[in-house]
Amino acid sequence: MKLKNSRQILLATVLLPLSGIGQDMRKDSIPEVMVHANRLQIPFSKDNRNVEILTAEDIRRLPIKTLNEALTFLNGVDIRQRGPFGSQADMSIDGGSFEQTLLLVNGVKVADPQTAHHNLNLPIPLEAIERIEVLRGAAARIYGMNALTGAINIITKTAKQSSIHAHLYGGSSFKDREEEEKDGIYYHAGAQIGATLFQEKHQHQFYYNKEQSNGQRYNTASENDKLHYQGQWDINSDNKIEWLGSYMHNRFGANGFYAAPGDKESEEIVETVFASISSTHQLSDKLSITPRLSNRYNEDDYRYFKHDLSRARSLHYNNALSMELNSRYQTGFGDFGLGWESRLERINSSNLGDHERNNHGAYAEFRTESIRRLTLNAGAYLNYNSQYGWQLYPGVDMGYALHPNWKVVFNAGSSQRIPSFTDLYINQRPGNIGNPDLRPEEAWQLEGAIKFQRQNLTAHAGYFHRTIDNFIDYVRDNADEPYQPFNLGQNLVNGINTNINYHFTENHTTYHINLGYNYLDPSIKTPEGVDSKYNLRSLKHQAKLLLSASQDTWRISVANRWNQRMSRKAYFLTDIRLSYAFSDINIYADVQNIFDVTYIESAAIPMPGRWFSMGVRYNWLKK
């Protein structure tokens, strides 16, 4: 009873001002954000897909400090952390596996060909992010391979004035660490510095971040360093060049991460380098082109026995070089988008061996608003993979305006997921072995939804059905055998998703409310008598309620999440932030998991209970 009353009091504290909405309410207009597709840029209000956007302002309101934490507040996105604050985490969308979701930075793929376990090894700080776009559903015709259940696109900021930035933060549960009471309490701390230089023709941004934690359990300490730099040169009004470079070094104890209970003394060291350069050229009033070159290099050193490197050590070195050319041609009856990409993947591994493969794809899209009240997007992605040959993935989106504020949308599309090098070649007996005969997963998804948008209110409610053929799952006949991946037939998912975003201002205070709910009904045709590694771990219910109130100098935010997985009990989490700003300084205090809930996101690793942290930000802007 006491816990229930505490929750009611906490929520009432934020919601009480809503009861006094009067005639002086100001309806702020929602910015017309352009969804960052690579060829046809579409305003958010005119997009016919299930797209959710988390803006920089949304991120500032949340009680978070990392990208992983930000993603947990996006509808349909499932983040499964093996350890908080920079340790390994997986992401998926709408019940898919972590290998079926594509991650991008400014439209550039950052997918790791070794394993998607490394996709979130991103050194991009929250301060450098303009927004995060989540496109749900089969997205091959927009982003190409491995966007089977959707894509997450991180859009970075463009420097608009010179500045200096610093951020110090730290926190603790004020409890002794599990299994090591004599070693004191569990803590986490970090520091970040950054600077931007703005000139009329060129702009630059630089960030360095250092984080460290002693680990909530035995052998789960972590330490990571992140560097991020990006720049832009505006040659003239029709031509510009953009570039980006980042580096991350992440070292963490991996007790229970992959092969519990035998991996109690394991450790992993991951180094990632990511770079891209692109240019945009407006060749005429109708035609523009954007060539792009990017490269992602990753080193993974997994030590099953960290005190004895002579045995059970796996060293992986992989590289993915991508070349792209995207174009847009505008006509009186619609816009055409054409593109081409090549991706060259290589791996040198003490465990997986030496392998390489190439992927080449061509895009074609068409969009028109020439039919009254109807918007139409159609296209296809033609793919050639050196391992699997030719594949074609078409898709179509339609939207019909019932009213200036109401729109119904329908989309249908296909996509694929190419097996990772780990799926094909891993050799970690008695834990896991690969299967070089795997075929790509292929999906079809149908979705219908109704959307509402009016100045300070947006709402979405939809239903989707997805069928995945050649679904890949790791299975075994009994506990004495290793897990091995097989194409097990069909994976069917039916889902319902809703989201409401509302904001208003009254009496010099701005209020934001974001409410979302996601329901999934998955089924997998698994042969009888086999033990599956992944098929019962997706979310069945997912709900969020984000509340905030702010004035010029102070802000309070409450973030609530309720999750239930297919094979685990439900859990409810509440985080709160109180912040105060004066001059160039912002001070904040967070309480995460305020009701000290015990829960698990991945494997058998318990996540931290109640957690207290404080931080201070300094941000100097050149006038």
TrEMBL record:
GO terms for molecular function: siderophore uptake transmembrane transporter activity. Gene3D superfamilies: TonB-dependent receptor, beta-barrel domain, TonB-dependent receptor, plug domain. Residues 208-594 form the TonB-dependent receptor-like beta-barrel domain. Residues 49-151 form the TonB-dependent receptor plug domain. It comes from the Bacteria. Keywords: Cell outer membrane, Membrane, Receptor, Signal, TonB box, Transmembrane, Transmembrane beta strand, Transport. The keyword Nucleus does not apply. It is a multi-pass membrane protein. It is found in: Cell outer membrane. GO terms for biological process: siderophore transmembrane transport. The keyword Transferase does not apply. SUPFAM superfamilies: Porins. PROSITE patterns: TONB_DEPENDENT_REC_3. One of its GO terms (cellular component) is cell outer membrane. Pfam families: Plug, TonB_dep_Rec_b-barrel. Belongs to the TonB-dependent receptor family. PANTHER family: HEMOGLOBIN AND HEMOGLOBIN-HAPTOGLOBIN-BINDING PROTEIN 1-RELATED, TONB-DEPENDENT OUTER MEMBRANE RECEPTOR. This is Iron complex outermembrane recepter protein. It comes from Sphingobacterium wenxiniae.
